[in-house]
């Protein structure tokens, strides 16, 4: 399997459509889950970029794992619907 295309969160434009797979205690854990998701959903994940973003909420630091590479909100929603049909967690989000 090819290494993921890594997208620096600092390069994303406001309004970019993403999907979020989850929040993790470390960047390494987020990247490991990307590998798992990519191997399980290879065709769907083709062309998607991995975004690992540090965040803090309620005094807790964590990393969000998101995918980039969607044309619009409908595209992100269709992608998540396909993953959710296989019991995977996926939430369409907009970069702010």
Structural class: alpha+beta
Give the helices and strands as they follow along the chain: EEHHEEHE
**Whole-Å distance between the termini?**
31 Å
Number of strands: 5
What does this structure look like?
By secondary structure, this protein is an alpha+beta fold. The chain has helices at 27-40, 42-45, 73-84, and strands at 5-6, 17-24, 49-57, 60-68, 91-94. The chain has a 5-stranded mixed sheet with strand order 1-3-4-2-5, covered by helices on one side. Strand 3 and strand 4 form a beta hairpin. The termini are far apart. The model has no long low-confidence stretch (mean pLDDT 95).
Task: Please give the structural blueprint.
Blueprint: E1 5-6, E2 17-24, H1 27-40, H2 42-45, E3 49-57, E4 60-68, H3 73-84, E5 91-94
Provide a concise account of the structure shown.
The protein has 96 residues and is of the alpha+beta class.
Notable characteristics:
single chain; 96 residues; alpha+beta
């Amino acid at each position: 399997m090819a290494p993921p295309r890594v997208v620096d969160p600092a390069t994303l434009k406001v309004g970019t459509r993403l999907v979020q797979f989850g929040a993790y205690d470390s960047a390494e854990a987020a990247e490991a889950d990307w590998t798992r998701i990519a191997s399980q959903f290879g065709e769907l994940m083709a062309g998607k970029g991995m975004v690992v973003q540090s965040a803090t909420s309620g005094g807790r630091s964590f990393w969000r794992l998101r995918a980039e590479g969607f044309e619009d909100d409908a595209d992100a929603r269709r992608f998540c619907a396909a993953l959710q049909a296989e019991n995977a967690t996926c939430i369409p989000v907009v970069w702010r």
